[in-house]
């Protein structure tokens, strides 16, 4: 393969969303990769029921149950519909969508959850008051994790 052909391939990869390109023929073998290495997201699997014969599992179960914040029964929670990263602001230099004490209408954006480079708006399903912001800006979130505690109005 000639240098100009190789430069064309590199330009194609950098001008598109392609992050990895492989090509192999009888004469050449080309592998072009751009960007950082793969991002690994650790997901904790549910813990099986604990028996007396497995004290190590019991310790893990006890530790994971204390990691999640206690949810007050008086309030409704707004949960993440996906695994991703929570962003409380539309851009790094902008003000947050909501603060504690704000009254929001149904359909108003509360935050963004970025998953696979797509930003998904998390909206209020009903008119409510923000009681607590559970997740900080730019932190990872799992499916079903509480983002906000709200009081219905």
From TrEMBL:
What's the protein here called? Biotin carboxyl carrier protein of acetyl-CoA carboxylase
Q: Where does the Lipoyl-binding domain lie?
A: 62-151
Any GO BP = fatty acid biosynthetic process
Q: Does the keyword Lipid biosynthesis belong to this entry?
A: yes
Key words, A-Z: Biotin, Fatty acid biosynthesis, Fatty acid metabolism, Lipid biosynthesis, Lipid metabolism
Q: Does the keyword Ligase apply?
A: no
Question: What terms describe the molecular function in GO for this protein?
Answer: acetyl-CoA carboxylase activity
Q: Please, which domain of life does this record's source organism belong to?
A: Bacteria
Provide one Gene Ontology cellular component: acetyl-CoA carboxylase complex
Its annotated function is as follows: This protein is a component of the acetyl coenzyme A carboxylase complex; first, biotin carboxylase catalyzes the carboxylation of the carrier protein and then the transcarboxylase transfers the carboxyl group to form malonyl-CoA.
Q: What organism is recorded for this protein?
A: Desulfuromusa kysingii
Q: Which residues does UniProt assign to the signal peptide?
A: none
Matching entries from PANTHER family are given as: OXALOACETATE DECARBOXYLASE ALPHA CHAIN
**Which InterPro entries does the annotation name?**
AcCoA_biotinCC, Biotin_BS, Biotin_Carboxyl_Carrier/Decarb, Biotin_lipoyl, Single_hybrid_motif
> Pathway, per UniProt?
Lipid metabolism; fatty acid biosynthesis
């Amino acid at each position: 393969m000639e240098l100009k052909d190789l430069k064309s391939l590199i330009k194609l990869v950098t001008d598109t969303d392609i992050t990895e390109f492989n090509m192999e023929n009888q004469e050449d073998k080309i592998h072009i990769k751009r960007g950082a290495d793969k991002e690994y997201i650790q997901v904790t699997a549910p813990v099986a029921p604990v028996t007396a014969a497995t004290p190590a599992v019991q310790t893990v179960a006890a530790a994971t149950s204390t990691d999640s914040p206690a949810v007050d029964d008086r309030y409704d929670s707004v949960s993440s519909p996906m695994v991703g990263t929570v962003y409380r602001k539309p851009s790094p230099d902008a003000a947050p969508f909501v603060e504690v004490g704000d009254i929001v209408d149904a359909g108003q954006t509360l935050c963004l959850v970025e998953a696979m480079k797509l930003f998904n708006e998390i909206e209020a399903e009903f008119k409510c008051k923000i009681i607590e912001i559970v997740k900080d800006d730019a932190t990872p979130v799992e499916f079903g994790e509480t983002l906000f505690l709200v009081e219905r109005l």
